[in-house]
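Chapter summary example.
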Amino acid sequence: MEKQKNILFFCFFCFVLLSLLTEMEGVEASARKGHRGVYGFRPTKLFVFGDSYADTGNNRKTQANSWKVPYGITFPGKPAGRFSDGRVLTDYLAKYLGLQSPIPYRWRKYGENKVRCGMNFAYGGTGVFNTLVLDPNMTTQIDFFQNLIKDCVYKRRDLRSSLALVTLSGNDYGAFLANGGTAQDLISFIARVVNQLTVNLKRVHGLGVRKVAVTALQPLGCLPRSTISNAFQQCNATENMAVDFHNSLLQQAVAKLNNESKGSAFVILDLYNSFNKVLKSKGEFLGSVTFNTPLKPCCMGISSDYYCGNVDGKGKKMYTVCDNPGGAFFWDMVHPTQAGWRAVCLALKSTLDQIN
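The structure predicted for these 356 residues follows.
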């Protein structure tokens, strides 16, 4: 029975995606045409909203594994709240723009001289809706930003020269399934997620931010938590079809926003294709980095009940770490390594050139 449900689910996605193809051709053409207005923009501030793919230290130390050893062993050499062995997407985007990585919102009072570079409001584990963590969802993150504007921490001229990074990495879908959501209801839920994400993007731009970059959903079926069932050898095609649907809706929404903004204010950072490019090539297009087993994480629990960073009551490590994190694409069951993020950003270079 379960096999039949999966087949029906797969077929339904095929039907939906095929019905979108004709419309998407026009959307893609419109988006390419709109990119001409982005060139020449050099942001002086970066504001970040989203989840663990962008979080650089907002999660509570008592709550997140990102504050536990061995996270941060490559950079800065100790746990610092990043869900990786080192730098994450925010850091690489800031570096590409010639900016310092913006200070996490929770630490703003301890680095007042750093707010001039922007601010990072992203919290690991969150989504556009409430998820399985207690940290603020994206709407609340934008509320924090709006309050800083009201308090004149950032003025209109600051926002006119700023870029926003918005990440959405799938926590809403994980919470949906964990709370009893079914495959049959998933399609309508994906539409709800993208609709709310669109509201958030429009709101950030409406507050005065000149350019907004939003991530396409990465191939969830290629994350180690999905490939562990086949010894990290093959991605889950059914999961990736759901991702395709999400990204198709997002592309349509962003094209519409750009038509409304009359200035190509929105751009998609295509994590789906950039992840796939790196995973399929094993990073060899970089020339110096090769991920020999790209689907296998560097840090993983010694059983399915444990995660990277967990210890038992006596302090014994309940995880293992590979000898060379720089040779692994994934750090843990969900997040790339620093080397993985670097490879992804190199694969994104043509898109990044459009916002710089």
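To summarize the output: The longest strand covers residues 45-49.
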